[in-house]
Design brief:
Layout: H1 7-11, E1 18-23, E2 29-35, H2 38-43, H3 53-61, E3 64-69, H4 73-87, E4 95-97, E5 103-106, E6 115-118, E7 127-129, H5 135-149, H6 167-170, H7 185-199, H8 203-219, H9 223-241, E8 254-262, E9 265-274, E10 277-286, H10 291-295, H11 303-317, E11 326-328, H12 335-349, E12 354-356, H13 361-382, H14 385-399, E13 408-417, E14 420-430, E15 433-434, E16 440-443, H15 460-478, E17 485-489, H16 492-504, E18 512-515, E19 521-523, E20 531-532, H17 538-566, H18 579-589, H19 592-597, H20 600-607, H21 609-621
Parallel strand pairs: 8-11, 11-12, 13-17, 17-18
Antiparallel strand pairs: 1-2, 1-3, 4-10, 5-6, 5-7, 8-9, 9-10, 13-14, 14-15, 14-16, 18-19, 19-20
Helix pairs in contact: 4-12, 5-7, 8-9, 14-17, 15-16, 20-21
Amino acid sequence: MAIEDLKGLIGRLPEQPGVYLFLGPEGETLYVGKARVLRDRVRSYLAARGTSPRLDALLRDAAGLDFIVTDSVVEALALENRLIKQRNPRYNILLRDDKTYPYLQLTVTEPAPRLLVARRVERDGNVYAGPFMPASVARRTMSLAHRLFGIRSCNEVIDGKRGRPCLEYDIRRCLAPCVASICSLEEYRHAVEQTRLLIEGRQDELIDTLRDEMMAAAAEERFERAAQLRDAIRTVETLRDRRNSVETPAIGDRDAFGVKAGPAGAVVHVFQVRRGRVVDRIELVADERAPDARTGASAEAGDDVLRDIVTTALQQFYAERIAPPEVHMPVALDTDDREAIEAWLSGAAGRRVRLAVPQRGEKRGLLDLAMRNAAMAYQTHFADGATTAFEALDTLRGLLALPSLPRRIECFDISTLQGSETVASMVVAVEGRMRRSEYRKFRIRGERAGEGAGPAQPDDFAAMREVVLRRYRRLLEQGGPFPDLIIVDGGKGQLTSAYAALGELGLDRLVAIGLAKQEELIFTRDRVDGIALPRESAALRLLQRIRDEAHRFAVTFHRQSRQKRNLRSELDDIDGVGPRRRRQLLTAFGSVAGIRRASREELESVVGPRVADAVIRHFAGA
């Protein structure tokens, strides 16, 4: 059903703010969007065909429409973000955080606060600093606070009534607030304030405080304490001198969003500036089902694509974070979107948050830096192998008339030696990358599909049918995931056997191809002749790499099976003779021939009468 078939429903939409949902043929959510006026926004899709491959695909697949009315566009924005997370729609841009950097949590809600490593910021009244990148910096800072200021690291309930302090006090890593006679809570709170200055990066204030204490201690002739404070000042000064070189106090607190989008996906770099210096860099990467990666957008994304990515990044990034007073972006949003997002962010922060596109000066320089980092990260994530794999998958989609990119490919190979120890392998490639954890190996049982367990002389065609049948029967029981493309090592015969197994399971809608060696021809169900791709084709190289990996895995398994068979002893076939009994017999008689010649009395003396009778019966029958 095309979007035109929904005209009647669109005309009845209310002229109110809300969220609209395009639905697929089976009721699945394809896209979630927000609108200041639902009828006007959804009606604009009627004239949007041809503006982008992603939008064309959405309009082609849409079979239904649903909507939810809200009181304001800000509520619509929050609801849209929630529904995207819950329903995971295909045509919304999905971003993921590449790393979760730790924070330091100062538990000021406790009588004697502790300093802990936390993975996320909670609104619990405690003080959080960070995130710290790399993660080891957080732990080093926490250790430094223990050593410099004596912040406790234990989990005890502090009431000052402990009889004696622990070892941490003896090695001068804790002030021992658990013993009131050693350290009162007032003295401990002073150390807590110094720790707070340290973790928040306020080194200059901390140095001034420590220097005043050092001079006071020296004046009172407490020289050991003065020396400790002197060492602490030197340590903090070293930290101050190692500050991030990207520091401009005049620009205060702000975030800068750099974006790079291309045919393989998108990368967003967020530079977080606090008190004029860059404290963190957070990278968001487009989900593997990102619309532009799926539909093959141009290498240089236009402003419309950038707006979509920036809007999505703002919603997902600040869903669990408080925005600074200013957020800088590379492209201006539509007025309605900008005002709605600003109102949403301001409400969450309790102050005004402004979205801006800086044009010059230090603010523009920071944004350009974020853009350059996003471009370099895009090359790291998607250049070379990733882009080549995308091009290869896109070529295969067109060549085989697939409905979408063959992101998940499974390949089968058979390995045998004159019909003995026949085994099979299956390897999996996702987005052109091999998934070793999903490899599977099979021992061919010589059973013909549909005939129960009756043995048959295995051959390549029968073996291929058996292994495909076993693999996808199991997937049916597990509910997937099913591949977008199946490769069998061989020609038309192996491909026919694979389709026979798929047909028996009712899965003949899956697409399978055969890749023959030597000629490297691609065989399909619908063509008599094989398809020849140029030797330099990225698609052919991808198929060859997957097929060769399946062959390597099958040959390795076959070699292991032969080796295990060759190491097998005739004693393994005797009931009641396990590894321990076998060692006893071979130690006593030297070889299988010696065991065969042994008398009943000799056997009984080694393994007892019952096993001796079993050994004699076995060799007598042989």
